[in-house]
Design goal:
The protein is α+β, with helices and mostly antiparallel strands and 160 residues long. The protein is built from three helices and six strands, in the order H-H-E-E-H-E-E-E-E. Strands 1-2-4-5-6-3 form a six-stranded antiparallel beta sheet. The radius of gyration is 16 Å and the shape is globular.
Length: 160
């Protein structure tokens, strides 16, 4: 893929994060209820949060379903952002995932994922792309949950 099609690192990321949040909230109603919000994107690292209050359980910690959802969306968001940077289109799905709950989350968490430098250019040729992402969920700078997600991006079929 030519570098001409790549959005330079550091350019337009605040607009991309706003578009990502709007995409989540308009297509996945749970994300709006959870108040999921992307915080930072460097081009290779994405950080996402959701406040504890709407995601709390009877133990006054974050509900396991909210943890899973936040981590799933963080990985999905990273794939979406990479597609946007490369001006590629694909339908992103989570094919398989595993989460390990390590410590209770008692404050607003931050989910972090780093892009593994996966080649996505095949999407432009109608090929599906597979990427495995490791998402860590931190509370008070301590790792509280670890998530491995296997995402697939399917090439969009254009109407004739």
């Amino acid at each position: 893929m030519s570098q001409d099609n790549v959005m330079p690192i550091g350019s337009g990321f605040s607009e991309l994060l706003s578009q990502l949040q709007n995409t989540w909230h308009s297509t996945i109603p749970l994300s709006q209820f959870m108040q999921v919000q992307p915080l930072r994107f460097s081009g290779t690292e994405l950080q996402v949060t959701a406040p504890l209050t709407p995601n709390i359980n009877l133990h006054n910690t974050m509900f396991a379903g909210s943890i899973y959802t936040l981590m799933t969306l963080t990985g999905w968001g990273m794939v979406w952002l990479q597609q946007q940077r490369l001006t590629l289109q694909g339908d992103i799905v989570l094919a398989d995932a595993n989460v390990k709950y390590i410590k209770p989350i008692t404050a607003d968490p931050i989910a972090k994922v780093i892009w593994p430098n996966t080649d996505m250019s095949g999407l432009a040729d109608g090929k599906r792309i597979k990427v495995t992402l490791e998402v860590g969920l931190y509370c008070n700078e301590q790792l509280c949950a670890a998530f491995t997600g296997h995402y697939v991006s399917l090439p969009k079929v254009m109407p004739e």
